[in-house]
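Known limitations

Structure tokens in this collection are predictions and should be treated as such. Users comparing against experimental data should check residue numbering before alignment. To illustrate the layout, the record for Lipid A core - O-antigen ligase and related enzymes is reproduced below. The input appears on top and the generated tokens appear beneath it.
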Amino acid sequence: MQRPRSVWNTNNALAACFLGLLAASLCYLPNMGGSGLKLPLNALTYALMATMLLLICWRQPDRRTWRLSRSAAYFLPGVALLSVPLTYAPPDGYAPAAWRVSALLAGWLWYCGWLQVRLAFRWRTALIALLLALTAGQSLIALLQLFWPGWSWVPLRGTRVFGIFQQPNVLGSFIATGLALALMLAVLPGYVLRAARAERARQAGLAALLALLAALLVWVQSRAGWLGGALVLAGFWLAFRRVCAPRLQRAALAVLLGGALATALLLWLGKLARCVMCRTRCRIRRGSPCCRTR
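Generated tokens:
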């Protein structure tokens, strides 16, 4: 059965918007102050998301009811619970809190909008791969800011990395989302390739990506990212520990190994930095106790 031309046009427009999101995630837009839609990256992202939501609604004009998943049903009471502090918020803090709740509602609407789109399995896999590519791009920016700041096109302000989002907690949450997608591809049996050699290569690549994302969660030093990564790992363990135990164990081992190596490197670099600072002070002030050899 051939699809109407309007459906194909909206599909092409949705793909173009996703490519626009991919391009926007790699472009640095300087932050001139403010919050919410006053930030250029936020305004551009919201515009693209609103356009995609309108295209989804235009794609199915005859549908009178919306499909909802169990996750969407659980997400809405969570948004309502987070909205309770608005009832007793002080006047000076009401506007920022209202913007955050509005962002949660916008995310819920965008998620529900994508529930209305029926995609074939290969297109869903391509969509997940695109989201992982977005995460890999942010990981590259974070690595450049951490170890090669001279090569990064995003300037580093302070000592914490923030990626293109210019906020460490947003970067940590985004990396935790990429960790969840990589775990899904590594653990769920529906994504297993038929060729054994190709499947081994895929699992090795996903294990390396899981270790890298776990290490970045440690290096970004975002408690929101840590909480998201821990909840993702715990949720996968509770849901699939009996169904996909071998693949889940290998994926969890890669995550724990990446986190442990990143923690050890962070502690070693901190100790090395303290030693360098101590030796520098010793050269300036001769006779300091820290100059004594042990």
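For this record: Confidence is low (pLDDT under 50) at residues 290-294. Residues 120-293 form one domain. Please report discrepancies through the issue tracker.
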